[in-house]
Design goal:
The protein is α/β, with parallel strands linked by helices. 35% of the residues lie in helices and 23% in strands. Pfam families: ABC_tran (PF00005), oligo_HPY (PF08352).
């Protein structure tokens, strides 16, 4: 039994100009202890898919799926109260832009304590000890002092570490990291990736890494899902994807990497046709070849 299994997930938004299909029949499977990367350019539906799983999309969104199970439990059939017990405890998410995700009106210690108070039975002293333990684990210096710091008093990298501490506070079985290294310098990016993969290995978590950075994919992933304009183009293990991609869009995406450039100009990825069969996810979908 897979840790997470989603089949034929679609998301449609009601807009002033009419319905907009953000996702069309995508599939995801994650095993315990596995790292799944969801890769694609901006607007490909990576974050929307995970927000649909978390139940965090606005009321204007219509979410449908043939299957959405976590450890065999159908998430679609859970009451709102029961779903809240699963989301945030067994399934947790690190959102983009940590400074925007943290509440500026509360200390980081309060925000960590809030997660523990909601999902555990620890008393106040035990929660404070756990908060300091978590801040230490994610590499925050002087954690006893930083408990009382506000987000604006910390750097972007430190805020990202706090977000990771909040997301892992209850030892989730599945962690979703949405562009966890965005807007961080290269040195901090490496530290954050090492931290995430270290936590994943130590706790045996499933990890979904949302990214458009193929370097992150190569370094961290076991399997990869490639998306384009809300559709699934290819699913493969990471070695196969880089050495023998089967989909024209995946090939174009890889050819656009700077290290693959020949001459003075980088290759570009064409605007691929959308007349392929949605939801196959096996590399059989077709599109126009990339221009160079």
């Amino acid at each position: 039994m897979s840790l997470l299994e989603i089949r034929n997930l679609s998301v449609e938004f009601d807009t002033a100009s009419g319905p907009f299909r953000a996702l069309a029949g995508v599939d995801y499977t994650v095993e315990a202890g596995e790292v799944l990367a969801i890769v694609g350019e901006s607007g490909s539906g990576k974050s929307v898919a995970m927000l649909a799983l978390m139940g965090l999309l606005p009321d204007t969104a219509t979410v449908t799926a043939d299957k959405m199970t976590f450890e065999g439990t159908d998430l679609r059939s859970l009451s709102a109260a029961r779903r809240r017990k699963v989301i945030g405890k067994d399934i947790s998410m690190i959102f983009q832009e940590p400074i925007a995700s943290l509440n500026p009106c509360f200390t980081v210690g309060f925000q960590l304590d809030e997660a523990l108070k909601t999902h555990t039975k620890l008393d106040r002293r035990q929660r404070r000890d756990r908060v300091i333990e978590l801040l230490t684990a994610v590499g925050i210096p002087e954690p006893e002092r930083r408990v009382g710091a506000f987000p604006h008093q910390m750097s972007g990298g430190q805020c990202q570490r706090v977000m990771i501490a909040i997301a892992t506070a209850c030892n989730p079985k599945l962690l979703i990291a949405d562009e966890p290294t965005t807007a961080l310098d290269v040195t901090i990016q490496k530290q954050i990736l090492d931290l995430l993969t270290g936590l994943q290995r130590n706790h045996g978590m499933g990890l979904i890494m949302i990214t458009h950075d193929m370097g992150v994919v190569a370094e961290t992933a076991d399997r990869v899902v490639v998306q384009y304009q809300g559709r699934q183009m290819e699913t493969a293990d990471v070695l196969t994807l880089f050495e023998n991609p089967s989909n024209p869009y995946t090939k174009a995406l890889l050819s656009a990497l700077p290290e693959n450039a020949t001459g003075d100009r980088l290759p570009t990825v064409a605007d691929f046709a959308r007349d392929f069969t949605p939801g196959t996810g096996n590399g059989a979908d077709t599109g126009r070849e990339a221009r160079s």
